Amino acid sequence: MSNLLNIRDTELSSFLVAIADLSLRKTAVEEKRAKVQQESKALLDYTRKAISRLTYLKRTFAQLEDDISPCEAQMENWKTNLAIMESKERQYFQQYSNYKAMLNRVGYTPEVSHGVLVEMAEHRKDLENKTKPILDTLRSYQDLPPDKALAALAIEEKKRQYTDAEKYLDDILQSALGSSD
Which residues are CB-neighbours of 18 under 8 A, at least 6 positions away? Predict the structure, then answer.
């Protein structure tokens, strides 16, 4: 037994010291074992989480691979639309430069703006309102017959209608005044 406990003599005190030493070593080994077990559990949890994350990433990767073909088709569509838009852009810029050159040829200046055009339109309406009675008079002359004698006859007819209208108006006024008395 002394060989087993690694002691030189068989005294009781030596045995007690050896047993205490063994007890200390046992406690140290148990603490070490508990620490290793705790680290092992932590590693096991970490490994489980890593495996579930890997599974999730594999599933996501598979979904993304499945989405590749529709996305590629959509990208081709966008690429085609982009090419069309670029050609339209060039066309619009060409039209813009053509319109700008045309405006320069006709004398457009930046001073001709919306406000100026509105002002000119209002002035035009004022002129139309002022010239409308004159224009109506001139048009009434077009209703006259081309012959001078017929024109004189038409003028006499209009004068007669005018005097008849005055007479009718005078009669109405007289009757209105007479009925109020």
Answer: 5, 6, 7
Structural tokens at position 152: 């004189």
* pLDDT attached to residue 145: 61
Report the C-alpha gap between 69 and 75 in whole angstroms: 10
Q: Which two tokens stand for residue 78?
A: 């966008």
The residue behind tokens 């209208």 is 165
Encode 13-49: b = buried (16+ Cβ within 10 Å), e = exposed.
eeeeebeeeeeeeeeeeeeeeeeeeeeeeeeeeeeee
pTM score, two decimals? Answer: 0.36
- pLDDT interval class at 16 (50, 70, 90): confident
Whose tokens are 């209703």? That residue is 143
Helix ranges (H only) for 6-113 are 12-106
Of 76-80, 92-96, 133-137, 166-170, the range with the lowest mean pLDDT is 133-137
**Local structure of residue 144 (DSSP, 8 states):** S
Query: If DSSP codes are grouped into helix, strand and coil, which group holds residue 111?
Result: coil
Q: Which residues contact 154 (CB under 8 A, 6 or more apart)?
A: 144, 145
